[in-house]
Amino acid sequence: MGFDVHATDGMARRGTLTTAHGTVETPAFMPVGTAGTVKGMMPGSVKTTGAQIILGNTYHLMLRPTAERVAQLGGLHRFMNWHGPILTDSGGFQVMSLSDLRKMSEDGVTFKSHLDGKRHHLTPERSMQIQHLLDSNVTMCLDECTAFPATHEVAEKSMKLSMRWAQRSRDAFVERPGYGLFGIVQGSVYADLRAESVKALTDIGFDGYAVGGLAVGEGQQMMFDTLDVTTPLLPKDRPRYLMGVGKPSDIIGAVRRGIDMFDCVMPTRSGRTGQAFVRRGVLNIRNARHAHDDRPLDEKCGCPACRSYSRGYLHHLFKAGEMLGPMLLTWHNLSYYQDLMADLRRAIAQGCFEERAAELEAQLLLGDIPATPDPLAGTPAAEAEAEAAATEPDAKAGGAADEEIHSVPVDL
């Protein structure tokens, strides 16, 4: 696996990650394919959004259909018909989130499956074996994702365990051309622990470095403060991956601080619930204000939802419970994220990142375009529609403001 930095602008970097299954232009956003699929999308459709790499979830795949089954069926690329690069997480985050179903030890973590209650024991060595069987291009070390908030003492103990597991992961990882292993920096929001973690990982030596333990409730400013003291310590010739992030403003701010790779379920999960990302922020297509709107979600977007369908039609699909609605909104959201990354890459290459980032951040604060008057207002048809909408729990009559959505790190 190789990584080349082609341009920098401040701390922002424009690079290329080279793997056995193709290259990834960075900064890059990875759609999440939790159980071997990006929900609501065909692999070819994911590719048309501009995505070059996707993320698979080790925890879910080890439980169903099992890593051994995926290997028997040709590996994850063939299994899910995605022939580009794949990154898999170690399974640690999902296991750690099962606080009532797991037991930690120096050796690893024992947990009960959320599917059938069976016990499993996940160690650094087993995590490496699973990800090797899946044939992922980027393997992640097993780590303990420290809960937030955590005292310095708790965060230090957790971080040091993760560093011991990182060494064991490195020892168990099978080197192959075009494949790599990333270490994960931990230490909660404590600068001294983050620095200690970076030193431990760089002493071991990895193909890339992830910043873990963020986007877990600490808030955007604290996340940025933690990145400010962490990313400058990371090797400049290795990719940097901020795990589980996030909102567009999170991504812009993290690219500003030297991060190269991102993943989050936000665009897909939001698409399934009727929330769309547009250049002026976030809108809820279920809101009544969209029912009569003949305009696209975003006039500057080239995705199928924006090219061929109106807001009014998308609103109808969600109100009618038609599966095409979530599919189109997911496609749009993934396209929005990939367009954002391409915009940031272009700005870095042209040496105008800060100016463009400021423009994008200002646009996100504008809010959606004003609602248009309903041509059918006052007619029996409009009154019947309003009456039906008023009986629904998610009704937003009167053009109420669209709901904000919040970052979520995993798609359980």
TrEMBL record:
Its EC number is 2.4.2.29. The active site is at D89, D263. Residues 374-412 are annotated as: Disordered. InterPro entries: ArchSynthase1/Queuine_TRR, TGT, TGT-like_sf, tRNA_ribo_trans-like. Residues 10-361 form the tRNA-guanine(15) transglycosylase-like domain. Residues 377-400 have a biased composition (Low complexity). Its cofactor is Zn(2+). GO terms for biological process: tRNA queuosine(34) biosynthetic process. GO terms for molecular function: metal ion binding; tRNA-guanosine(34) queuine transglycosylase activity. Residues 244-250, 268-272 are annotated as: RNA binding. Keywords: Glycosyltransferase, Metal-binding, Queuosine biosynthesis, Transferase, tRNA processing, Zinc. It is an enzyme of class 2 (transferase). Catalyzes the base-exchange of a guanine (G) residue with the queuine precursor 7-aminomethyl-7-deazaguanine (PreQ1) at position 34 (anticodon wobble position) in tRNAs with GU(N) anticodons (tRNA-Asp, -Asn, -His and -Tyr). Catalysis occurs through a double-displacement mechanism. The nucleophile active site attacks the C1' of nucleotide 34 to detach the guanine base from the RNA, forming a covalent enzyme-RNA intermediate. The proton acceptor active site deprotonates the incoming PreQ1, allowing a nucleophilic attack on the C1' of the ribose to form the product. Homodimer. Within each dimer, one monomer is responsible for RNA recognition and catalysis, while the other monomer binds to the replacement base PreQ1. PANTHER family: QUEUINE TRNA-RIBOSYLTRANSFERASE. This is Queuine tRNA-ribosyltransferase. The gene is tgt.
